[in-house]
Amino acid sequence: MNVLYLLGLLISLTGMVVLDVRFRLFFAHSWWRAAIVMAVGITYFLIWDVAGIDAGIFFRGNPELLTGVLLGPELPLEELFFLALLCYTVMNSYGAVTRLLARRREGRG
Q1: What are the tens digits of pLDDT across the range 25-41?
Q2: pLDDT for residue 94 is more than 80
């Protein structure tokens, strides 16, 4: 049972949290809105994954890199953390870009 990939995802998520708190980008800006957006995003991509698995397009990756814990057929535990990282990264990026654009409009950028 290998946990390196999961550990890498957790370290990356921790980095997203640090950036979020430091610059008030997503959860630190409005935690309840962020929770809704994160839940909708993860749910959407999980549905996408299940549809892809059902169609035979998606399959579990290299089992040597994964914990072996499956949430469903061909759906490893790490996928949930990857989707959380994907959504968090996009929303932190969105928060950073909107803040930079607002500063530029105000003439401070």
Answers
A1: 999 989 999 999 999 99
A2: yes
Structure tokens at 20: 């979020």
Give this prediction's pTM. Answer: 0.91
DSSP string, the chain: ---HHHHHHHHHHHHHHHHHHHHT-STTT-HHHHHHHHHHHHHHHHHHHHHHHHTTS-----GGGS---EEETTEEHHHHHHHHHHHHHHHHHHHHHHHHHHHHHHT--
Distance CA 17, CA 12 (A): 9
- Would you mind telling me the total number of residues written for the chain in this entry? 109
Residue type, 23: F
Rounded Cα distance between 39 and 54, Å, is 22
**Residue among 83, 86, 69 at smallest CA distance from 2:** 69
